[in-house]
Amino acid sequence: MKILYLAAILIVSAANVQSALATDPCKAVALTDIKPTDNPYSGLKKGEIIESVTQYLIAKKDQAASFCQHGGSCYPRFIKKDGKNVEAVQLTNCTVGTKPYDTDEDSSYYAVIVDKSRMSGDDLKRFELSNKLMAFGIIQISADGAVDQLINDPTSECGKIVDKAIKGDRKAISIFKVYPNQCN
Question: Which end of the chain is more exposed for a tag (fewer CB within 10 A), N or C?
């Protein structure tokens, strides 16, 4: 009963918790004004950041390469400008995998891999703490929210349980498995 009561206390509004990792730590920057491949009515200005980049795809038809974000759009890596191919999007803290993890009749899909040497200290800390929680079977979105709570309010009930879970406390880990969104 005490664990259920504590879990109920830990429920935090999603509006109060902002994950720096969202669902994936990989980011890219627009090197020029660019439109996504799937929506000609939106776009990015030069210097804007694309969050949560999860894959790199190469179209079989024309070998056009794009970076795609989780739950969002795909942006062409190169565009034609004055008749020349110009790099339009560049990863900032990740690299592209060397072999496709999947293919279909239209495209080959490559993973984007975190390059820890290119991450800020704060992003790296969040990434590593989230990975520790996910190693215990906690889903990523819950792990990211829990890590935010630990970093932003370590003395809160949720922050204390997250700290214990990261250190391997079985009771704290089980709370996340039963109530995976208590910190979100």
Answer: N
Give the pLDDT confidence score for residue 130 in this predicted structure.
85
Q: Pull the structure tokens for residue 163.
A: 């700290």
Kindly calculate the radius of gyration of the chain based on its CA atoms and give it in whole angstroms. Answer: 19
Strand ranges for 63-140 from DSSP E? 65-69, 74-76, 78-81, 84-87, 89-91, 94-96, 102-103, 107-114
Task: Report yes or no: 96 and 112 within 8 Å, Cβ to Cβ.
Answer: yes
Domain assignment of residue 183, yes or no? no
Same domain, 55 and 126: no
Do 44 and 110 share a domain, yes or no? yes
Find out whether 141 and 23 touch, Cβ atoms under 8 Å: yes
Domain span at residue 79 reads 28-115
pLDDT at residue 126, as a whole number: 86
